[in-house]
Design brief:
With 102 residues, the chain is mainly alpha-helical. The chain has a domain at 7-71. 76% of the residues lie in helices and 0% in strands.
Length: 102
Amino acid sequence: MSCDCDCHKLDTLSELKRCEARHKAKDRKIKELKKKVQIGTLVGVAIAAIFGKEALDSITEWLSSAQDFGSTSSDLFSVFPSPGVLPLFATAFLLTGVKRRR
């Protein structure tokens, strides 16, 4: 049964106000969480850039020293890579990804 009396209108309006208040609270919480995610992402990118740069510098330094060693004693190197280089090849394979048909 629905009627148009004032008591039912007031109940409906109070329910509407409570719903709007809950909605506003949820919107504030979502905005706070989005801000935290953005800050976390920026911090993560900065840390990754710093450590990535250091790792890249150490890898290039190691490769240049290996190349210098190879140029001075080319008879010591065989055709097969050393076991220490295999993780580097595996990392390169993982970074390139596997191509799959769709």
